[in-house]
Amino acid sequence: EDKVVQSPLSLVVHEGDTVTLNCSYEVTNFRSLLWYKQEKKAPTFLFMLTSSGIEKKSGRLSSILDKKELFSILNITATQTGDSAVYLCAVEGLAGANNLFFGTGTRLTVIP
Amino acid sequence: EAEVAQSPRYKITEKSQAVAFWCDPISGHATLYWYRQILGQGPELLVQFQDESVVDDSQLPKDRFSAERLKGVDSTLKIQPAELGDSAMYLCASSPRDRVGYEQYFGPGTRLTVT
Questions:
Q1: CB–CB of A34 and B33 under 8 A?
Q2: Going by CATH, does the domain composed of B5-91 fall within 3.20.20.80?
Q3: Which of A50, A97, B5, B62 is surrounded by the fewest CB atoms within 10 Å?
Q4: In chain A, what percentage of residues exceed pLDDT 70?
Q5: Average pLDDT, stretch A16-36?
């Protein structure tokens, strides 16, 4: 059975801290892994990862994929209160179906 | 910037009533998805369309849920009759045709409360 597990489930940090969010997966015919940020509305796209070892970076956020060990991490440096959100990891695994299988998310709270 | 449109944004209904949600994907996006997101969980795919055809509805509770995309553009998701357990956020997403390694663009969602 396809599975995406995120950890930790929730995290509280102070502004300026660096955080690492984890996503491990077991899916049939892996194609890509995506990270989304969800505040009080719909998820917004952050990164898509298809190859191992290649870091994707956007400002203070970065992510990397390890296809051998079946996990990805999302790093946020110098956190700000605006980073408070649920971070969702999703995997595209069923060949031809092009649908995403989501984890339950990590709720990040950044306090001033 | 083009966005996925959904309406209504909020819906409160009594159990056993019928309810319908509407989604208009980004223009030119052939693939449309409906997800259900229960509070504290990640989105769960209900149905996927490629143009007007259903590609995957294996997780759609077909005894009470139905979805259509008659002209391959906008889509409607219906629940009849609604049950208390249907309270959730219903998200619509779209993506371009035949892209490998694509991203899905999500609409603002419809938050359904069944009383």
A1: no
A2: no
A3: B62
A4: 94
A5: 92
